[in-house]
Specification:
Elements (H helix, E strand, L loop, with lengths): L2 E4 L13 H4 L3 E4 L8 H5 L4 E4 L6 H4 L7 E4 L9 H6 L3 E3 L6 H17 L1 H9 L23 E5 L3 H12 L3 E5 L11 E3 L2 H7 L2 E4 L13 H5 L6 E4 L8 H9 L5 E4 L19 E3 L8 H19 L10
Parallel strand pairs: 1-2, 1-3, 3-4, 4-5, 6-7, 6-9, 7-8, 9-10, 10-11, 11-12
C-alpha cells in the first residue's frame, strides 16, 4: 500500500468535502498546514505527496528517496522544483481548468461591485441615507452599464475564455492579447497587441501565467496608456503588477478602480501599498475557492494519483 501525504489540505478542503476517494488509493495522511521546518519530517516515507502552496525545494526532494509522485493541488506548480524532481525520477502533475467558472464569476463580482457600487449604496441606506433623501431614488456615484463597454483580457486560456463568455453575455465588446490567437480564436473576440489592449479596454482583466517575460508588465508605463475611467482586475498572479505603480495610478486618477484577488506577498504580512488605496478592492486569493471548484480540484487530483499508480501518468508538467 502506497503512503500518500497531503501537506496542506485546508484551503482545498476546510471540512466541507471528503478525502475518502484519495484514502481508497493508499495509506492517507492529511495535514491542514505544514510549516517549512516540518516538511521533511512529514513527507518522509511518502511515495505520493500532495502540496498546494507548501514549497518543495531541490534539497528537500533529494532527501525523499521513496517519493515517486508530487501532485499539486493547483494549476500553478512553481512551488515545486520540477527540474530537480525529474532528475530524481519523480513525476509532477497539476490540475487545470477546475476553477474557470469560479474565477470568471469573481472577476465580474469585482467589476459589478465597482460599476454598481452595491456595498456603498447598501451601507448608505443602512446608515439612514435613503430615509433622509429628498427623492425616491438617488446614486452616490455614477453607475456604469456594461453593455457596449470593452472588456480586455490578457491571457486567453480556459479562465480568460470563460471571462469572455460572460462579457459577451453582458453585451460587451471583447478584445484579448494572447500567445496563440490562431489556435484559440472564437467568434466575438478580437485579438490585439498589448498596446491596443491597454488603450481600448474599459475593463482590463489579467489571466496569463507569470513568467520572466511578463513580470511587472502592468507598470507605470502601462497604466498611463489606459483610459482614466478604466477598471483593472487581477485574479492571475500578483507578480504581473508593480504594486506601487498601481497605487499611484489609482491615487492620481490615471485609472478609475482596481479589483485584486492576488498580491506579491500572500498573505501580506509585511504590509502592501495597496491595502489602503481608495477605489481598490482586495480579496484574499479566493476567486478559485467555490465549493464546486474545490470538489473538482480534489476529484481531478484523485484521478492524477490513480492514473500514476496504474502506470499512466496524466496532467504531467515539465515534459
Amino acid at each position: 500500500m502506497k503512503n500518500i501525504v497531503v501537506l496542506d489540505g485546508h484551503t482545498a478542503n476546510p471540512g466541507d468535502l471528503t478525502w475518502d476517494a484519495l484514502a481508497a488509493l493508499g495509506k492517507l495522511t492529511v495535514y491542514d498546514r505544514t510549516p517549512p521546518d516540518l516538511v521533511l519530517e512529514r513527507a518522509a516515507g511518502a511515495q505520493v505527496l500532495l502540496t498546494n502552496k507548501t514549497v518543495l525545494k531541490e534539497e528537500t526532494l533529494a532527501k525523499l528517496p521513496q517519493l515517486r509522485l508530487v501532485s499539486v493541488l493547483a494549476t500553478g506548480y512553481n512551488v515545486v522544483d520540477v527540474a530537480a524532481a525529474q532528475r530524481q525520477g519523480v513525476t509532477v502533475c497539476n490540475v487545470r481548468g477546475y476553477a474557470a467558472n469560479s474565477v470568471a464569476q469573481h472577476v465580474f463580482a469585482m467589476v459589478l461591485a465597482v460599476a454598481n457600487r452595491i456595498a456603498e449604496h447598501s451601507q448608505h441606506t443602512a446608515a439612514g441615507g435613503w430615509a433622509a433623501a429628498h427623492d425616491w431614488s438617488y446614486s452616490l456615484t455614477p453607475i456604469w452599464e456594461l453593455a457596449g463597454k470593452t472588456m480586455g483580457i490578457y491571457g486567453f486560456g480556459q479562465i480568460g475564455q470563460r471571462v469572455a463568455d460572460l462579457a459577451l453575455a453582458f453585451g460587451m465588446n471583447v478584445i484579448a492579447h494572447h500567445k496563440h490567437p490562431e489556435r484559440d480564436r472564437r467568434a466575438g473576440v478580437a485579438f490585439v497587441d498589448f498596446e491596443t489592449l491597454l488603450a481600448q479596454s474599459d475593463v482590463l482583466s489579467l489571466h496569463a501565467p507569470l513568467n520572466a517575460d511578463n513580470q511587472g508588465i502592468m507598470n507605470a508605463s502601462a497604466f498611463a496608456k489606459m483610459r482614466s475611467s478604466a477598471i483593472f482586475i487581477n485574479t492571475g498572479r500578483g507578480g504581473l503588477v508593480v504594486e506601487a505603480d498601481l497605487g499611484k495610478a489609482l491615487e492620481g486618477g490615471i485609472i478609475a478602480a482596481a479589483g485584486l484577488d492576488v498580491l506579491s506577498e500572500e498573505p501580506p504580512k509585511n504590509g502592501n501599498p495597496l491595502l489602503c488605496v481608495k477605489n481598490c478592492l482586495i480579496t484574499p486569493h479566493n476567486a478559485w475557492a467555490a465549493r464546486e471548484a474545490r470538489q473538482r480540484l480534489i476529484a481531478e487530483t484523485v484521478e492524477n494519483v490513480r492514473a500514476f499508480l496504474a502506470g499512466e501518468p496524466r496532467n504531467e508538467v515539465g515534459r
